[in-house]
Amino acid sequence: MPRPRIAITCGEPAGIGPEIALRAALDVAAADCLLVGDAAQLKALALLLAPARVPRTIASAAEFAHHRNELCVLDSPLAVTAQPGQLDARNGEAVLRMLDLAIDAALAGHVDAIVTAPVQKSTINDAGFVFTGHTEYLAERTATPQVVMMLAGETGEGMLRVALATTHLALADVPAAITLDGLTRTLDILHHDLVHRFGIADPHILVTGLNPHAGEGGYLGREEIEVITPAIELARARGWQVSGPYPADTLFQPRYLQDADCVLAMYHDQGLPVLKHATFGRGVNVTLGLPIVRTSVDHGTALDLAAEGLGSADYSSMSEAIRVACQMAIAHQ
Fold it and tell me: Counting Cβ atoms within 10 Å, is residue 313 exposed (0-12), middle (13-18) or buried (19+)?
C-alpha cells in the first residue's frame, strides 16, 4: 500500500513547534509529510537546518497527492513575523487556521492523519477565539459528540497508555462531569479504538476510582459505588475485559500494569503525571473517537527553549507522534 500521508501542524510560531515539526518531518521515511504553517518561516528554518531539502509550497491539500516522496508545506501565513519565545496574539488566528486546514484535509481524504505541534491557548483566546484545547476543538470541528484523550509512551516495563474520563476541566467540576452515561460512552470509544486503531484484539482496561482509596466503601465519596462500578459492570456484561475501580495511588505498579492495555483515569492530573514521569519526551497524545486519526506531542510550546535558538528542542515526541499516526492510519484503512 502507498505510504501514509500525514499533515503536521506547526503550532505556536514563537515556540518550538515549527522546529520540531520540520526536524521530525525531515527524518520520516515511512510517510509523506505535509507541513501546515507559515511557509516563509518554515523555509527559512529549512535553509538553516537542511538547505538541500527546503519544502515545496503547495496551494491546497488536494495538490499534495501530486507530490509523493516530497516534503511540502501548506501555507498559513502569520500576521506578523514570529519572535522566538515572544507570544503575539496577532498570530492567534493563523495558528487556528493551521488546525482548520489540517482537519479539512483529513476529512476530505487528502491526508490519512494529522499530527499537531503544541499551541499556546492564551494566544488563541487573546486573538478573540474561544479555545480550550486541541481535543475539544477537534471534537467540535468534526461534529463528534464525545472524544477520549489518551496519552501513550514506552516505559522500561512496556507500553503505558492512559486515557481520561474528563479532559481540560477545573478540578471542582470533575465529579459532576463523571456520569454513568458519559463513562459508559468513554469505555465504548476506548475499547473500540484499542481494537480498530491499535489492533489489540481483546484489550484489558483498568479503571481508577475518583476519590482517595477508590472511595473506601463510600466513606470517602460515593462516585465509585453509584457511577464508576456500574459503568464497569455494563462493559463486562458485553464481554470486555474491564476491571476496577482501583485506587489511583497504588494502581500504577508493574504487577497491575503488566497485563493491562490501558488505564482509564478520571481526570487530567490523576493519570497523566505518572505517564509523563515515565515517558516524557517520548509520549504521544491521541484523540480517540474521531472520524480522523490525530496524534500530538506530550509537551507544550517551550517558549524558553525557542528563545535559546535552534537545536535546544528535542523532537523525539514529535517523531513518535508521527510514527503512531502512521500505524493508526494503516490500521484504519
Answer: buried
Q: Are 144 and 152 in contact (CB under 8 A)?
A: no
Q: Which fold has domain 148-276?
A: Isopropylmalate Dehydrogenase (3.40.718)
* DSSP 8-state code for residue 91: G
Instruction: Please state, for a pLDDT cut of 90, what percent of the chain lies above it.
Output: 86
Domain ranges of the chain: 5-144+290-332, 148-276
Give the residue among 263, 268, 267 at the shortest CA–CA distance from 252: 263
Q: What is the pLDDT of residue 69?
A: 86
Q: Which residues are CB-contacts of 8 (< 8 A; sequence separation ≥ 6)?
A: 21, 24, 25, 33, 34, 35, 36, 102, 114, 115, 116, 117, 318, 322
Return the H-helix or E-strand segment holding 8: strand 5-9
* Domain boundaries 5-144+290-332, corresponding CATH code: 3.40.718.10
Task: Using the predicted structure, report yes or no on whether residue 79 has a pLDDT greater than 70.
Answer: yes
Mean pLDDT of the chain: 94
- Interval 131-176: pLDDT, tens: 988 989 999 999 999 999 999 988 877 889 999 999 888 999 999 9
Please state, in angstroms and rounded to a whole number, the distance separating the CA atoms of residues 320 and 332: 18
Give the residue from 169, 176, 142, 138 showing the smallest Cα distance to 286.
138
**What Rg do the C-alpha atoms of the chain give, in angstroms?**
20
Higher pLDDT, 51 or 158: 51
Helix, strand or coil, per DSSP, at residue 37: strand
Asked, colleague to colleague, whether 5-144+290-332 and 148-276 share their fold, the answer is yes
Query: Per residue in 95-105, pLDDT tens?
Result: 999 999 999 99
Beta-strand runs (E) in 144-231: 148-155, 158-164, 204-208
